[in-house]
Amino acid sequence: MRKYNEQTLKSVIDEFLERGSIKEPYMQSAIERAWKKMMGPVIGKYTEEVKFSKGKLTIKIISASLRQELWTSREKLQTQLNEMIGSELIRKIVIR
After folding, report:
1. Structurally, what CATH architecture does the domain formed by 23-95 represent?
2. CA–CA distance, 38 with 85 (Å, rounded to integer)
3. Burial class for 90, CB neighbours closer than 10 Å (0-12, 13-18, 19+)
4. What predicted TM-score, i.e. pTM, was given to this entire model?
5. Where are the domains of the chain?
């Protein structure tokens, strides 16, 4: 008789990511995609860099006025990005 270990696909993928050293690059890629999707092509062309490390998301914007506008909205951006990636990984956003 077979014994089945039933798990959701999400839990299996999460477990796989936790075990290997793939989680950080995977989340970097997921966050970059979420940023591009959320901001669209107009703001995307002013985004020079999106970098995630240890809970901190650093976004480099080449327009001073846009940088200021995004800086004032960073808590809202953090909430929306975390919702899009399905995890509360982003604990801080730095706009440069």
Report:
1. 2-Layer Sandwich (3.30)
2. 11
3. buried
4. 0.77
5. 23-95
CA dist., res. 8 & res. 93, Å (int): 31
Residue with tokens 């075990």: 19
Q: Which of 23-27, 78-82, 84-88, 89-93 has the lowest mean pLDDT?
A: 23-27
The average pLDDT across 36-50 equals: 95
Contact by Cβ (8 Å): 56, 27: no
> Around Cβ 83, how many Cβ atoms within 10 Å?
12
Helices (H), the chain: 9-19, 23-44, 64-72, 74-85
